[in-house]
């Protein structure tokens, strides 16, 4: 984690670590309380750079970021992420993979997500959102 002279991690320093560009995604299905997207994990995604040389793997933080990003785009949710629950990374996702992101509303403030491909279930968990205080 980057820190400044006072030992703090700033938002801008964290944003510099990640390219916030959206991945190539297609909405396959959307209902009032659920949605499924197909995402192409292109080999040139900045998320794969250096993770790992010769055998790039999509980092878990990118997978969670995509779940949060698309949940916010597709559902009316509170602004901030309050917490993550039951996050599990079952199998790695390599470059040039094609994955499905399944999002399912849980109450007013939550979203369950699953990331899967034809080969495996890759990740799952719950994201709880909260309005700013």
Write the topology of this structure:
Elements: H1 11-17, E1 24-30, E2 34-41, H2 60-74, E3 80-89, E4 97-106, E5 110-116, E6 121-130
Antiparallel strand pairs: 1-2, 2-4, 3-6, 4-5, 5-6
Q: What does it look like?
A:
The protein has 133 residues and is α+β, with helices and mostly antiparallel strands. The chain is 17% helix and 39% strand. It has helices at residues 11-17, 60-74; strands at residues 24-30, 34-41, 80-89, 97-106, 110-116, 121-130. It has a six-stranded antiparallel β-sheet, covered by helices on one side. The two termini are 26 Å apart.
In whole angstroms, the N-to-C terminal distance is 26 Å
CATH domain topology: Thiol Ester Dehydrase, Chain A
CATH architecture call: Roll
Cα-atom radius of gyration: 15 Å
Overall 3D form: globular
Low-confidence stretches: none
Number of helices: 2
Task: Describe the structure using short key phrases.
133 residues, 6-stranded antiparallel beta sheet, alpha+beta, Thiol Ester Dehydrase, Chain A, 2 helices, 6 strands, globular
Give a short summary of the structure.
The protein is an alpha+beta fold and 133 residues long. The chain has helices spanning 11-17, 60-74; strands at residues 24-30, 34-41, 80-89, 97-106, 110-116, 121-130.
């Amino acid at each position: 984690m980057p820190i400044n002279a006072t030992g703090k991690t700033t938002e801008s320093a964290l944003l510099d670590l990640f390219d916030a560009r959206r991945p190539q995604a297609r909405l396959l299905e959307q209902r009032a309380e659920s949605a499924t997207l197909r995402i192409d994990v292109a080999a040139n995604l900045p998320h794969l750079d250096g993770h790992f040389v010769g055998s790039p793997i999509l980092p878990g933080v990118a997978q969670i970021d995509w779940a949060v990003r698309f949940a916010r785009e597709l559902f009316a949710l509170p602004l901030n992420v309050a917490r993550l629950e039951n996050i599990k990374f079952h199998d790695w996702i390599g470059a040039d993979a094609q994955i499905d992101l399944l999002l399912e509303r849980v109450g007013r403030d939550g979203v369950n997500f699953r990331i899967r491909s034809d080969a495996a279930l890759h990740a799952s968990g719950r994201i709880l959102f909260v309005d700013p205080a």
